[in-house]
Design brief:
The protein has nine helices and no strands. It is mostly helical.
């Protein structure tokens, strides 16, 4: 294993991890953005359902306006077409939503149309109560117009009218409360107040008449007087109170039947409303499941992002730790090597390079240091050998020096005798030289004589 290969491998791994982390985070961010866009699309879809379905349904149930029903039908078709194109919605939930919308259009829409035809079930009851109120007011006017009647009788009428108006008022309030919930307790209370109103009417019928004719009889008498007819024909004339009491009794007699019909129609309308609300609730539950799926997908993406980020960070940390350990190991190797080299430089050849490693560079360094150590050992042995030889040579040189000294001493003596002989030889040489000089002079003179003789001979 080479340190260079390991270093390149860790660097390449670190770069690869960073690239993978960048790619994973980019992919995750795109997925999160897609999930966010799906959430926005879901919110818009919910708002569209609320605006184009729920609000028109509630408005139609409250008003019975047929134009709202037509608009609702068109809106349902539009939303169904849009639901088919919603690719962000899971296929199973999209199919359920289409089924819910189809149910709204085919079943609930028919019930709503039938319920709208019922208009207001309380209309007849309200009209009945209004007529009762008008009749009671007419009785009050009847009492006020009967000036000639006894005061006690008029007071009795007013007391019963007050009770009847009170019963009618309570009946009207209870009826309004009853039709909001169709509560059986409210129905019992309503029947109680109806019985109380009927008792008041019976009490009014039992009171003595105040002597005012009905409007028809009074008009007939006026016509007879105007034409000069005989008004005493023996016909039975009706008191106005009897006519008004008969109207009240007729209204109160019709009231239970009208109440029963109104209750049936209200229940039918309430059932239609409940069915519509239930269908809308089912649609809401289906859409809520979409929200759960989107939230689950979003949470899963977040967990995936956290997992990928954590894994990449963990790998980066592991890689950095590996690089740090490698650097520390290299620093340790360099420290041990420099210490060993320093000892070798100081001449300490006892220390051994004890570093154990599987790195090729360290093994090569160890082998080189071992070779250097062996070389120094060999060098030391060679130095020791050469030192021994030098000592031997020194001994021989000392012996030679003593021999030389003796020889020199002998030579000196010989030189001194030679010097004396040389002095003698010098003196002899001087003498020889002097003799040679004299001989040279004689020779020169002889030469000149010869030359003179030769010249003389030549001349002769």
């Amino acid at each position: 294993m080479k340190i260079s290969s390991l270093a390149r491998g860790t660097s390449a791994a670190l770069i690869l991890i960073v690239l993978l982390m960048s790619a994973a985070l980019t992919w995750a961010l795109r997925q999160i953005d897609t999930a966010f866009q799906q959430t926005l699309s879901y919110a818009d879809y919910r708002k569209e359902i609320e605006r184009q379905v729920k609000q028109p349904v509630n408005a139609y149930l409250d008003s019975g306006d047929a134009t709202l029903l037509t608009e609702l039908e068109h809106n349902l078709d539009t939303i169904r077409q849009r639901t088919e194109r919603n690719t962000w919605m899971p296929a199973a939930i999209r199919q359920q939503a289409q089924q819910r919308l189809a149910q709204l259009r085919d079943e609930i829409l028919y019930e709503l149309r039938e319920a709208g035809k019922l208009a207001d079930p309380q209309a007849l009851l309200i009209n009945n109560e209004r007529e009762q109120s008008d009749t009671l007011l007419s009785l009050r006017d009847y009492v006020a117009a009967a000036d000639a009647a006894p005061a006690a009788d008029r007071l009795a009428y007013l007391q019963q009218l007050t009770l009847a108006l009170g019963s009618l008022h309570k009946l009207s309030l209870t009826r309004a409360s009853y039709f909001t919930t169709l509560d059986p307790g409210s129905a019992a209370t309503l029947r109680l107040y109806l019985q109380e109103a009927q008792d008041s009417v019976h009490a009014l019928q039992a009171l003595p008449k105040l002597g005012l004719l009905s409007a028809a009889d009074q008009q007939q008498d006026e016509m007879a007087a105007l034409m000069g007819w005989d008004s005493g024909s023996g016909e039975v004339q009706t008191d106005r109170a009897e006519e008004l009491n008969a109207q009240l009794l007729s209204l109160l007699t019709r009231y239970p039947k009208e109440l029963e019909n109104a209750t049936r129609l209200s229940r039918q309308k309430l059932d239609s409303r409940r069915n519509a609300v239930a269908a809308l609730d089912h649609l809401e539950q289906t859409l809520a499941s979409v929200e759960e799926v989107l939230n689950h997908r979003y949470q899963r993406l977040l967990e995936l992002v956290f997992w990928v980020t954590g894994s990449c960070i963990l790998l980066i940390v592991i890689t950095v730790i590996g690089i740090t350990l490698l650097q520390n190991r290299l620093a340790q190797i360099l420290s041990i090597s420099s210490g060993h080299i320093d000892k070798l430089a100081q001449g300490d050849l006892q220390d051994r390079f004890g570093l154990h490693s599987r790195f090729a560079e360290v093994l090569s360094l160890k082998h080189s240091l071992q070779q250097l150590h062996s070389y120094f050992l060999r060098l030391r042995e060679q130095v020791r050998t050469e030192s021994g030889r030098l000592q031997q040579l020194q001994t021989e040189a000392v012996g030679s020096a003593h021999t030389l000294e003796r020889i020199v001493s002998a030579q000196q003596q010989q030189t001194e005798s030679a010097a004396a002989q040389m002095e003698q030889l010098t003196a002899s040489f001087h003498e020889v030289a002097a003799n040679a000089s004299r001989s040279s002079s004689s020779t020169a003179a002889a030469t000149r004589l010869v030359d003179s003789g030769v010249e003389a001979l030549e001349q002769t």
